Amino acid sequence: MTAPLTHRQVLSLAWPVMLAQAASALPGIVDTVVMGTSGSATDLAAVAVAAVAFSFLYWGFGFLRMSTTGLTAQAQGRGDSHEVQAQLVRGGLVGVALGALVLLAFPVAETMLLGAFQASSEVEHEATGYMRARIWGAPAALTGFAIQGWLLGVGRTRALLVVQLVLNIGNAVLDAIFVGVLDWGAAGIGAGTAMAEVAACLVGVALVRGSLGWPPSLLDRDKLRLTFSANRDVMVRTIALLGGFAWFVNAGARLGDAVAAGNQVLLQFVSTSAFVLDAYAFVTEKEVGEAVGARSPARLKRAMRVTTELALGSAVVFCLLFAVTAGPIIDAIVADPTARSVAQEFLPFCVMVPLLGVPAWQLDGIFLGAVRGRSLRNAAIVATVAYIALDLGLRQLHLGNTGVWWAFVTMYALRALSLAPGVRGLLASAEEVD
Q1: Does residue 2 sit within a domain?
Q2: How far, in whole angstroms, is CA 343 from its chain's centroid?
Q3: Residue 43, domain extent
């Protein structure tokens, strides 16, 4: 019988993911620092728009990471080693194929992505250079999603850390060279990211090479149907949530380049807290997935409770850390005075995000581990529609960027509230299979 999950075990799994996730936040921070110290508000706003456009493009395929984690963990909980291997190979093949399609379709997608933002012509011009350079990393980036998801599902979090360090430290170094030394501007940021994505994918393949092969269940019809269903629902969920973040960036861009740039600076703090605290959600995915695969309600409840306790405690630390250090950091990294003024003015909203976000992030981890894609999809659509409606309503009060931020921080509560009712059903279904 498996011993109850302890806080120490969660921390041992979570700390490599925390470092990996902190490294994931590093490119955006470095991009912002490089553009903030070397460029104008227009340059900084261009990176903001292009980065969100790529987030929308790539993380629409985030199911390659999320579904792979849950399905792999459930197979491991059942003791099905062939299916554990099959999830890696399936995910990798799908990642390569989708990455190639994204690369081929990009000339059309580029116009659609940029058209979604109401940015100035100068910002749009700079953003185009970034996007045309970065797109060459698409096949490697999407294949890397599947590898990272599989590593999480089998609990190889230290290997995941290695992949993320290669990706993000490599990206930071290349960005500093291409922009700070060679003065390639936003296009240099995109090129550095693409090259780092290729390097990280190759390292990931090397780390999982012992599990590559052609397992018997690879083309099993029922397994393929389950994988497709989970991927479809998580894809819709991710697109809905990214639509909310794109709406936020666009709302700031409507108020001018200085507001867009200032909000971009604050988003780096938001992203850092989300990435690091998501480590607990990732461990939740693994532990909940194994509990569901093993058909153990007690193990499921324990995983939900222990991971969430640690996540909430860490969120409080982040709030305090941002309150003390974020202001001086903004002064140090943002040269443009108008962008710096915006970032300082709206910093209090940013400080609230870690604690407001934990319930949403943890619930995401629970439902991803249980492979409840339909619940995730429906909740994300409801939360995003409610957020957009709130933002539009606040615009009528002429609150400017204050209204933009109030709507944004409320979105986290909307996400949690839309998922919370499904927890009871998940626990009830676990009891039924006991």
Answers
A1: no
A2: 22
A3: 11-432
Instruction: Encode pLDDT of 139-162 as tens digits.
Output: 999 999 999 999 999 989 899 989
Maximum mean pLDDT: which of 5-9, 178-182, 381-385: 381-385
C-alpha span between 98 and 92 (Å, rounded): 10
> Is residue 5 assigned to a domain?
no
Predicted pLDDT at 434: 47
Name which residue leads in pLDDT, 98 or 175: 98
Look at residue 321 and tell me if it is in a domain.
Answer: yes
**Is 153 in contact with 69 (CB distance < 8 Å)?**
yes
Domains held by the chain: number: 1
Q: Report the chain's terminal Cα–Cα distance, integer Å.
A: 14
Q: What is the pLDDT of residues 362-410, one digit of tens each?
A: 999 999 998 888 899 999 999 999 999 999 999 999 899 999 999 999 9
The whole-angstrom separation of Cα 209 and Cα 190 is 29
